[in-house]
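Cross-posting from the chemistry board since nobody answered there.

I work mostly on the small-molecule side, so proteins are not my area. We synthesized guanosine-5'-triphosphate and want a rough idea of how it might sit in this target. Sequence and SMILES are below. Is it possible to get a predicted 3D structure of the two together?
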Amino acid sequence: MLQAKPKVVVMIPTYNERENIGSLIRDILALPTNYDLSVLVVDDNSPDGTAAEVTDAGSRDPRVHLLLRPEKRGRGLAGIAGFKKALDLGADYAIEMDGDGSHQPVFIPSLLDAARRSDLVLGSRFVEGGEDSNRPPHRRFVTFLARHFVRRLFSLPVRDVSSGFRCFRREVLEKLDLESLISTGPSVVLEILYKACRLGFSIEETPIVFVDRKSGRTKLTALTLGRTLYSALRIRRLYGRLQPGSRT
Ligand SMILES: Nc1nc2c(ncn2[C@@H]2O[C@H](COP(=O)(O)OP(=O)(O)OP(=O)(O)O)[C@@H](O)[C@H]2O)c(=O)[nH]1
Ligand SMILES: [Mg+2]
C-alpha cells in the first residue's frame, strides 16, 4: 500500500502584505518536494486587502488556507493562533516564515531535510553559507544588537536567535503549551525558541539568505522594538536561565 506523504503546513502571519503574498504562495506551492505541502496565512484583517488576495489564491488551489482574525493583535498572537490551526490541519511539520519576501521558499526543502534529524530547525543567517544581504545598515544593526543581547541574556546555543524562518516537528508544537506563551508581539520568536531549548528538543541551524522585504512597510517600529526588549526580560525572568541541553 502507498504510504501517505508527511503533511507540512507553511504558516505565514501577515499584516499589509498584499503585494507580496500572492507570489510567495505560488512559489511555495510550486516547490518540488516529497511532502504534502499546504499554506496557512494568518491575517489580522489587513486594510490593504491581503486576505482577499489569499482567498483568491485559495479559490484556485485547495492547499491554501486563510485564518482571518478580526483586528491587528500583534505578530505573536497571530503566530500562536497559526500554530494551533496548523495542528488542527494535521501538520506533521509546521514551517513559519514572514510574508514580506525576506524569507525565500527556495530554502524550505533544506529546512525539511534537517527536520528529519532535528526537532526544530532554524533558517540561519549566521552559519556558513547563510547571509543577511541587502538590508539597510540600521536594520542590520538592530539584528546585531538583538542577537548579542539575547545570546548573552539567555545563553542560547544557537547563532540566529531571532530567525522567524523555521521548521517544527509536530511534537514540539504540542509540548510548547501554546496557550501559556506570554508574547503578543515579535518576542514570540524568542520565547518559543527558549522554551523548546528548555524542553530539551534538538535544534539545528541551516543556512538561509535573508533579503530585504520585497515591498510594503515594516511593522517593526521603535515602539515595537522597545516592547520586544521588555518582553525579552519578562521571558528571561519567567523561564529562568537556560542550562544548555537541560530538560525541565
Ligand atoms: N497577522 C499579523 N502579522 C503581523 C503583525 N505584525 C507583523 N506581522 C507579519 O509578521 C511578519 C514580520 O513582520 P515585519 O514587519 O516584516 O518585521 P521584520 O521582518 O522584523 O522587519 P522588516 O523585515 O525590516 O520589515 C510579516 O509577514 C508581517 O506582515 C500582526 O500584528 N499581525
Ligand atoms: Mg520582515
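Reply from a structural biologist on the board:
Welcome over. Reading the output above for you: Residues 156 and 213 are 27 Å apart (CA to CA). The mean pLDDT is 92. Happy to explain the C-alpha cell format if needed.
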